[in-house]
Each structure stands twice: as structure tokens, then as C-alpha cells.
Amino acid sequence: MPMNRAHRKLCSSEGWAQTTKDRILPWALEHVELGADVLEIGPGYGANLRVLVEQVDHLTAAEIDADTARLLQSQWGDRATVLHADGAELPLPDGAFDSVVCFTMLHHVPTVAHQDRIFAEAFRILRPGGTFAGSDSQPSFRFRVLHFRDTMNTLDPATLPARLERAGFTDVAVDLHPEGGGLRFRARRA
């Protein structure tokens, strides 16, 4: 799921890491109890990981890109478990995590079917009562320019609740950011 050069530069920048810490994660995880064992699907260059590792007892990160997974392992492997794995086919046992999270990455998944397999995997590896939470961007002119020759398959906030329910989740909530530019979702495994 390649990203163009400008997109890679942005996502690996300190400015993006600060935006994640100050704006994205506080909004996406508002009123979400992560628990002790958390899986992040698609950590990319680790902007979210560096915040999450300070908030939970045990963090596991599943990154599809081998080079990026190695980079994360070298930077964070002493504080988090880093897996080179597709979020749709996780080498993890059923019911292993209190929460599963993903931030600003689902639009990089090329098809709705693949996104739905990620949702199903998140459900499978959650403990009963566990939470699946995250956020992603919504289309805009600037967002489309950033994704020139990139994968850009944004989530439709109108259909996302039903998709999460089909994966088995209950208590599904999808909200749009009041200032625009993104959505957040929360769902539970009963």
C-alpha cells in the first residue's frame, strides 16, 4: 500500500507526530478505556505508537510494510511488540486484547473488502467487552492532492456503522470531527 514521497515525508515528520499527540489521539480516544493489552493496526512511522506506549501496559503494533516494521522494531522494540503483519490476517490468538485501535490508516487499504477483513480480525482478537476504536480522514481537496498516486479509499461515515456491525460489533458510534477533516469510530465486542 504505497505512499508517494510527500505523503511519506509528512507521516514521518515530527510535526505529524505532534499533531497526532495533541489533536488526533485525544479526540479519537475521548472516553475510551484502552485497558492493559492494546493492539495498534497500521502504526506506520510510529506517531501514534510513541503516545500509546506511554498509556498502556502492553502495546502490540501490526505493520504491513516490512521496512517500516523493522524501523519500528529498532526504535520501539524494547517497549512494544512489533509484528510485520497485515491487519486482515493477524498471527495472534482469539480474544488476546482489551482494545484494538487504528488511526489515519484505513484509507490506505485499497478495497472495502480488505477493510472489512480488518474489522473482522479486530473483532476476533478482542476479548469480550473489548473496544475497537480509531479515526481516519475524510476527503477534501488538500487530502486528495496529498494522495496523488497513492491509495485513497476513505471510509463512508454513513455505511461504516453497518459494516462494523456485520463484523460482529455492538454499541457502534461514528462521529465526524466538529471542525471537519475526519471521523472517529468506537465499537465493542459483547
From TrEMBL:
Pfam (any one): Methyltransf_11
Molecular-function GO terms, alphabetical: methyltransferase activity
EC assignment: 2.1.-.-
Domain Methyltransferase type, chain residue ranges per copy: 39-133
Record GO biological process: methylation
Keyword S-adenosyl-L-methionine: no
SUPFAM superfamilies to which the protein is assigned, alphabetical: S-adenosyl-L-methionine-dependent methyltransferases (SSF53335)
Keywords: Methyltransferase, Transferase
Cross-referenced Gene3D superfamilies: Vaccinia Virus protein VP39
InterPro entries linked: Methyltransf_11, Methyltransf_Superfamily, SAM-dependent_MTases_sf
Protein's UniProt name: Class I SAM-dependent methyltransferase
